[in-house]
Amino acid sequence: MKHVFKLSAAALLASSLFLTSCKKDTPTPEPNEEEVITKVELSFIPEGGTEADEISFEWKDTDGNGTPEQIDPILLDAGKKYNVEVEVYNESVTPEEDITEEIETVEGKKSHRFYYIPASANLVTISGLDKDADNVSVGLTSLWQTSATAATGKIRVVLRHYAGTPPNKQENDPVDSPKASTDIDVEFPLEVK
Fold first, then answer.
1. Using CA atoms, how far apart are residues 145 and 143, in angstroms rounded to an integer?
2. N or C end of the chain: which has fewer CB within 10 A?
3. Contact by Cβ (8 Å): 59, 73
4. Beta 180-192 vs 74-76: how paired, if at all?
């Protein structure tokens, strides 16, 4: 009887080990870590101009409390094309962190995308966004064509972060795609004069 009990206990232990070792591991989704961004800088060079002609505008929330202490109004000439570059920083740490450098890498471009959303179509048309290795827009650089006449309004600058390996970023993803989370969503006043 003692022998049967030992045999049964051993069989029970072996079967429980077998069953648990055959269980498939469910992959844990990769977390989507948003960047801490306290400064967005847009730099404009008129088409045909040089770096000496560059003008820059900043949005700053240095302490990250959600209330920006600086929002420069973007002032552009009517009927002109501008080559635009965006840079993002975390100034809440010392030394400040240039988040742009991370986005400029091959992997960073695959997992990030800037959206530029004018409040009105009569302000500016945005095209020529730089692309990642899969030919999907990134938006670190772009071409802005201002309206032919004076106009005022606002423009949203949104940086979205796609998780996953590889990220499932597509050219037709809307700004509010559930596949991505928002790293930064800011609004600049825009005046075409």
1. 7
2. N
3. no
4. parallel
Instruction: Put the strands of the sheet holding 74-76 in their side by side order.
Output: 74-76, 180-192, 151-162, 112-118
Instruction: Give the pLDDT confidence of 71-113 residue by residue, as tens digits.
Output: 999 999 999 999 999 999 999 999 999 999 999 999 999 999 9
Buried b / exposed e along 169-189 (16+ C-beta atoms within 10 A): beeebeeeeeebeebbebebe
CA separation for the pair 6, 165 (Å, rounded): 49
33-192 has CATH 2.60.120 classification: no
CB-based contacts of 23, cutoff 8 Å, min separation 6: none
For tokens 């990030």, name the residue. Answer: 112
Q: Are 140 and 115 in contact (CB under 8 A)?
A: no
- Exposed, middle or buried by CB within 10 Å (0-12, 13-18, 19+), for 7? exposed
| pTM of the predicted protein model | 0.82
